[in-house]
Amino acid sequence: MSNSLREACGEEAKDILVALVCAFPAIYSYRCHNRSKYELTTRELKEAFEFVVGSMRQEYGSKVTTELCWASWCSIRYNYVRMLRSTGEPPMKWEQKLSILKSCPDIQRELTHRRVQSVSERPLVTTFGKNCVIFLLRKIGAHTCFHSRTYVAKTRFINQLRPTDRLLWDHIVAQVGYKYPGVDKDAAWRCWRNIRLTYNSSSYKILKWLPYLGFLELTVMPGLARSVDKNAIEVLVELIKDYPVLHTRECYIKDKHHNLPLEARLAFQDVVEHMKELCGPEATETVCWTSWRGVVRNNIRSFKATGRLLAKWQEKLGFLEPFTSVPPRDHSPPIFDEIDGDRPLVEVFGDKCVEALIKKVAKFPAFHRRWYVVRTRYVEGMCDRLREHWDEIVKELNTEFPGVQSKMAWRCWRTIRMTAARTVKWKPLLGFLAPHMKKSCPDANSHKNNSNNSNAQRGAEIATASPVTTINSSPEAAQEISPSLLSSLPRPEPIMGHAAGFNAGPVSASNEFQQIEGSSDWPYLSIASPPSFWIPTIYGPNHSGQNADPHNVHPSTYIYGPFQTEHNTYPHM
Hints:
It is a single chain. By secondary structure, this protein is an all-alpha fold. It has helices spanning about 5-10, 10-20, 25-30, 45-60, 65-85, 105-110, 125-130, 130-140, 150-155, 165-180, 185-200, 215-220, 225, 230-240, 250, 260-280, 285-305, 320-325, 335-340, 345-350, 350-360, 370-375, 385-400, 405-420, 445-465, 475-480, 485-490. Helix 14 (about 230-240) packs antiparallel against helix 16 (about 260-280) and helix 21 runs antiparallel to helix 23 (about 385-400). It is flat. The chain starts with a helix and ends in an 85-residue tail after the last helix. Mean pLDDT is about 70; it is low at about 325-340, about 440-455, about 460-480 and about 490-573.
């Protein structure tokens, strides 16, 4: 199918379309908003455009559709108005054919219409000039509460400011408004927020404001490496090493030095005094604390990930509590360095490892339940008892295949168990899952889509596979059968899957149905209300014990199959 009128009918079709549309002022004066959707709603417009489309179909046949004509006309009109607005001249191709559009009042209104912005919507520098912004920056420089980049970034609108900061901002805008009347609070905040967010970036827009933003230097570059010297951090670490009260975890997790315990805060003040003597007055308390906290946190992150500190600080930060409480690990075992835990088990160790895993899982029935395997996505989500069993499985597996990780093995078994009903590769090894493969379990795949049709086909196959006995009664009559009548009737043989006879042993994976245990001698018909799950045994219309015709099943046949009750019967009943 063509995407445009030109592809479907050629370039001349667009000329004919324009000539037809220009005969209807209601169409060409209508402003098209969406070219991909036929949006004419009024009766007059629809009738006019249907006439245009009908005339086009007389010329080009059924390949002309309403959508193609509408999309072509919207493109032509939009390009015509856009060129007329930007250059003052229409496209040369349509200058004569669409000359009538110049005199259209609606087109003239579109050309002259411009959205009028309010003072609060226009940029502050556009409305009041550069000097107004410079005056605003000088007033903001005296109030440090507006210097934090994090606070400014989170506060998109002035109504999100803290109450005290809101009053302070109103005071700043009032001072600016006294010199530049008409300054809006929202426009001023938007101007300052844009400047603060682009500060210390590579944007050229911030260059003209840098001479007036000197008050932000300490806020943006508080580290010793930038403010003082690159070696000043090492001096700070050597000084803190002499104060054990600063070595605990309670100290370095604090965001600000003001929140330190009293003893630790006094010790840190002594450190800062020594730093000022050695490095100068630029080593303030805030600068020193920011540098110290950054170094410690980076090394803790590296210690948790790799078991060792950063190479630069391995000897200098060994005195800290988190690095002395847990002995650092020099290196990991080579096998764990080479194996990626996110790779599939079969890809790393091969099919034999997966077969060994399946055989070991077969010994633990708790891992055979599909609902539990689906719910437990990760090994950490297991209960303690099952986690011990799984660790035992992985431990035994590692004796044969060294390096198998617990999460790799669980991800492999979880995939196999969730796809056990349709897997082919591992099916010979999954015979122990047969008790969990009955149709009442979540392993059933097709009963939601076409359960009635599939059950009817299974019932017909069962009817042709073994002798059957007929009970010509309705489901209601079956519940009224007396015990004496039941004892006099011949007992039929239950059918398991497609084979005659009853399999007394364990249910194999190929069986489609499972026997319902019961204490009565007649477990398939009961005086009480029938259960919701019955073995799909058919009592056809043949009393002689011969196979019944699956295409001639008696209408009153009493059948219960998977998810089958007296209120949910087969289509042929």
